[in-house]
Amino acid sequence: MESASGADEALTALARGGVIEELRASPGCVVWELGGDGGLSQRLAAQVEGLALVAIEAADAGESPADRHGPPALTILGAGAHAAGSSLEPWLERAHQLGCRYVYARRPSDGRAREEPVDRWYWRYDVCVAGGERLTLGEVRRAGAPGNQNRYRHTVGWRRLLPIAPRA
Prior knowledge:
The protein is an alpha/beta fold. It has one domain (4-159): Rossmann fold. The protein contains 7 helices and 6 strands, in the order ααβαββααβαβαβ. The chain has helices spanning 4-16, 19-24, 39-47, 81-84, 88-97, 118-121, 137-143; strands at residues 30-34, 52-56, 72-77, 102-106, 122-127, 154-159. A 6-stranded mixed β-sheet has the order 2-1-3-4-6-5, with helices on both faces. α1 crosses α3.
């Protein structure tokens, strides 16, 4: 299960990315969690009334995304989504086709953001979850220093109008 501080950081990133407010304004919205342990989605459900959660295990990634119900408003890429590898693409493609507005991912500990296939379907925005609401430029630089990458490990993606073409 995701640690309380990790889930708190993720919720802060979702709030700063504008996702939580939009979910609250959309009663009965659906959230897909791909390869997660349920910790974040359960905490999110406690904050957003009427949220419908669809947990998708990494092992399920081979099934057709069309088999899952409801157009998601948010797709959460949990740690198990890394194991899904290329089979993650159909889920993101289907979420995009269904009009899923947001995707959330946590960066790996080495600081690299998940690029493919997220970037094909969503505009990626790295969210700082450091202490205060407003940060000075110096604080942002220090938080982004190589030894302090955990403060920038959250990514919120906004739906692209059209996906970018896959690499040849």
